[in-house]
Amino acid sequence: MHPFIKNRVLSPCNMRMKSLIVFIKTNAIITVFVLFSSTVFAQKVVRYDLYVKDTLVHFAGKEKRAIAVNGQIPMPTLTFTEGDTAEIHVHNQLKEETSLHWHGLFLPNKEDGVPNLTQMPIWPNTTHIYRFPIIQNGTHWYHSHSGLQEQIGMYGNFVMLKRPSSPSFRKGIDDLPTLPIVLSEWTNLNPENIHRMLHNANDYPALKKNSVQSYGEAISAGHFKTKMKNEWKRMMAMDVSDVYYEKIFMNGLPSSELKSISGNELKGGDKVRLRISNGGASSYFWLTYAGGKITMVANDGNDVEPVEVDRLIIAVSETYDVIVTIPAEKTAYEFLATTEDRTNSASIYIGNGIKQLKSPLPRLKYFEGMKMMNDMMKMNGELDDMGMAMSLNQMDMNVVMYPEITGDAKPKQDDNDPNRYNANALGDLVTLNYAMLKSPTITALPKEAPVKELYFKLSGNMNRYVWSLDNKVVSEADKILIKKGENVRIVIYNGSMMRHPMHLHGHDFRLLNGQGQNAPLKNIVDIMPMETDTLEFNANVEGDWFFHCHILYHMMSGMGRVFSYENQLPNPLIPNPKLAQRKLFADDRGFHFMAENDFATNGNDGMAMLQNTRWSIGSEWRLGYHDSHGYEVETHIGRYMGKMQWLMPFIGFDWRYRKFGIDEQETNLFGQSNSKDLRSLVTVGVNYTLPLLIVGQAEIYHDGNIRFQLMREDMPITKRLRMSFMLNTDKEYMAGFRYIVNKNMGITSHYDSDMGFGAGITFSY
Amino acid sequence: MAMALMLSISTCFAEIKNAKEETVHIYGNCSICKSAIESAANVKDVVQVEWNKDTKMAVLTYDEKQTNQDEILKRIGLAGYDSDKFRAPDNVYAKLETCCQYERAAKIIAKIEASKAVNLAVEEKVVAPILETKTEGEHLQLKEVFNSYFAVKDALVKTDGTLAATKAVLLLNSINAVKMENLTKEEHSEWMKVMKDLVFDAEHISETKDAGHQRDHFTSLSKNMYSLIKVSKQETPTYYQFCPMANKGKGANWLAKENIVKNPYFGSKMLGCGKTVETIN
Predict the structure, then answer these.
(1) How many interchain CB pairs under 8 A, A with B?
(2) Residue A416: pLDDT band by 50, 70, 90 thresholds?
């Protein structure tokens, strides 16, 4: 237990490091790295020692496990100056493996910190030393790349300063008082459990966020047809984000004050530069400021020409440098980071005096979003952009859900207005988009280099939480070979229904955004559904570099690729490449378990299932309390086919025993006699998801009997009430309701043709 | 009656554990304010607030372990009511009932140095005194003319005839302030061609509050501004935009500073109608 965590008082300017950190001010010259440095400065080695340790925190009403580094969350801010050599000693005091990735940095591949790809994991009770020259400047951050550790505390600011003598030093920007801020979220749920629940389409987060979008809510909002059409197109209710968070943090605090920087008290008229990194695992944040416009001066650690905006959205893992002004004396102005779903926010008050508040962003109009999705979704599951060539976040389909842009009521919009999704054209607010980013320097790639073109389609399946590139997850795809020296151009189209922040390790790419030679340099590009973006980079550092969606749960589901340089030297930190690859692939090959059982008056009704990207192993049972009600277990092993995974062929085994049926039916609809009283049969069949999310099942047993079945589960009637029904050609039927009490418990009532009427309590995992 | 009240209060308070009581000043006027303040602040079993409209003082009773004074005052602030710690957002204050619009403590506006490195296109600059521009590099003296033009355009985007008229007066001033001897050769010859028409259209826009009539003149004003900006070097690009439906279906152009269509001929009726036809650097 760390008392420091529990009553942290952070004065914002002194959030750096605790006594454990030792600066070694040697002038050691590392000749290997002198090559990279064109300066005449003596090389300074800056050393940090990081102690990674389990801890208990009390962030949101309950004591929960977290990981603290040097006793703090977030991890300490690491500061370097361009030209330094970084030496970071990571002491793993956890009971599990770890790693640290330096996000957005140019470094030798073996220092990149991706376990099982660029190094083996840092085992418990061992120390790993990262050492690399700092050959760039800007706002970056660092985080664990192991499992889901990033969610529970392993994120921190990583700042690389310019030398004042550098030609890129900008007066009025680089000399302003500065605060690095890392944004993050906190959930009381274990992230492993969140990951499992996402894969099982659990709607508990929607319940917490009040975004279930049930039929009842649809009717009262006058959107019954919208909901019907949505389910007809086989979509489940969508939200702009998947996970519910109890708290949002800026540097580990939901609310904090910035009254002085480096001992100088802030006063009216002062400008402050905020170096903001989004260290959230899955949340995008809107940034707004009570003191007026925000001037954005850098993105992903690279300078851009200043742009003045009212607000911007920061994608997961992006960084933005912004300048804010304190417009009045004796006032502190609220700088607000609000989650994209608008359920939560964190604030920092900049200045001294009465706190000027900023209006929170209003709640999303979910049914307008649903209607928009209906229009975009074709019956076959492909998206249709209706002729709008979308890119660079300029058109945001979600504006239909933003009351501050499209009004509180239903919008009276002209469906042919070419700007109907353009927030900047519709409202008075100026929202940043990628087309507004312009590099102050020419970023063109070497002209003579050969060009390699790659095309990726981001693909996904919300219902089963499968996220991939070209419908292949990391473990299903080969490494992408590139040659040192060539220019790699990547065109990415997002054919999935969620936005994805795609991150490339070890390189900055140019985002082709209409700024010609001054295209901005980035290492994350956020791609909204139906957008196409083009990026390019010069392949100049050998190694195996990860390219992946930075939403933690998407990455762990396999949404990524590895870029690998041809004919490169083996990585000394990967002694056994085959073993490393198997361990890397294990991340998205894992099975997710779910189970539920209804303890009802007429019997037990339940299921247990193991699923991964493609496979499903499931068992359903109906167990009566006495022989006449019968006992029945059906087990299926199936494989999901196609991108939408609507089709699942399976093989299975049925076993049942019953003495006297209430239902005396002994032949099925086809006149085949049927073995309800004692059956143990092998079966082959298919599941197919029909419109309205009804699962049709056709199967044939080894005795020649055929069975067709229709089933719909968990149809949302109200926020907490779910309905299910089933009927089949064995003349069996079932209908029931479930009222959700909490994430593991429900109250049920149902009527079953075998077991009659029953009521009970369902426990689910 | 008093007894009953006492009882009900004491039962309310009885439910708040670890109770802490504080008295703070909250701005407001009437009984509408009272219910708005209290309903924004109260949380069942956690927070109970009683505001007195005569003394403007509120008694906060809350569970110390679950919340704090700042959280409560922030909620009250977001409902539109200032306290000594928090100032409500201006847009929320503006939406309060008229009787609730209490007198607010004035802010002392800070002097903000215009930083040269940060190139801020601040709205205020549009109406900045014209005299100042002379010291700033003379080749840029047409900038004020263009900026005043953009201000007229923005007023027409909002279909605000009154505002357009006042902006047109500023436009006239900036046209009159141009010193022809400081113009480049190309600018000078173009200026001679269009100056009279610019004055004519600007005068007409300034003399009426009817946005429809103003828009007729804005068509030719825009055309002349376009030919002027083509020969004049500006720091930032300007976008020449076109809407085929304006000018009674004949189509009309305008200039904009942003590459975003905001139609000055229709305003909110068809804000997004049009496209950029040329980028002038």
Answers:
(1) 98
(2) low
